[in-house]
Amino acid sequence: MTRYVMGVDVGGTKILIGMASADGEVLRERRYPTDTSSNEAILRSVYAAVDDFWMTLTPADPRPAAIGLGLVGGVDHRAGVWKSAVNIPIKNPEPVAHNLQQRYGVPVALDNDVHCSTLAESRLGAGRGVSDFVLISIGTGVSVGIVANGSLVHGAGNYAGEAGHMVVSDDPTVCKCGRIGCVEPLLSGGGIITATRALLPTHPESSLHRWGTGLHAGHVYAAAAEGDPLAVFIADRAVDCIKKMTVNVVNLLNPELVVFSGGALPLARLTSEVIPHLRTTILPITSASLRDVVLAAVHPEKAGLVGACCLAFDLLDQPA
Ligand SMILES: [Zn+2]
Known about the structure:
Blueprint: E1 5-10, E2 14-20, E3 26-33, H1 39-55, E4 67-71, E5 74-76, E6 81-84, H2 96-104, E7 108-112, H3 113-124, E8 133-138, E9 142-148, E10 151-152, H4 184-187, H5 189-199, H6 217-225, H7 229-253, E11 257-261, H8 267-281, H9 284-289, E12 292-295, H10 300-317
Parallel strand pairs: 1-4, 4-7, 8-11, 11-12
Antiparallel strand pairs: 1-2, 2-3, 5-6, 8-9, 9-10
The protein binds zinc ion (ZN).
Zinc ion (ZN) is lined by residues 165, 175, 177, 179, 182, 184.
């Protein structure tokens, strides 16, 4: 009989829940809003969404054998605790796994969203069968998922892969971590929007004014391609960052495959500049074993949910 698990992807604006089989077939996917007004409101949103999904399963639906959650921010995956989050305010550690396990009587696993996306790419995407690869994610933030010797690398505190805080620039922009020179404020989607908005008042000629509050990184890269001076400044700085960061990551980890993912990638320049730069700049010994550089095969909208389901299957399949 096909086994199904429930996956829960908790992001800053929405909670995506679905059930999946081990081969990635997703059933009954639903989307719920996230109330980020307070620590308590977020937790209420998550528990209410899981409750609604579980309670509305019909007798014809398979029962989930386990639950996996992908959460933004700091997660203690061993203890099943959501420790903290900055963009949505989780200030007090919450034993999410314990609470859900008590309520539904099935095993519960959790991890952070990037580790979940990396797991999804490793099991069902471009990283399938690859023992050493990195997933470079450029979305609202910047991070790197690492698979080494076939296993996801968590680090001592589950913070492995925080490449957004790799220092690569002399630019004076202050990062959220308080330092200067970090990748995050110069390359992430959030950082590009913040930096562009800060400079727009001194660039009345910029075509980017027309996007107002709907501005995103893609608009900046498109305007840069048309020669908008403000956009060129922001985009060149970002592309410089992604080049340096990727070279450092590849020289450090010697992956067989680099997978780029995320909604704030400079897609056109990735092919025309970043990948050629990578090939000519990394150490020849690491280049020899870097087989390919590709885009993620699992859709970014689904990667968190699919990865959360992979976590749940791993929990079911681990030896007793
Ligand atoms: Zn930083």
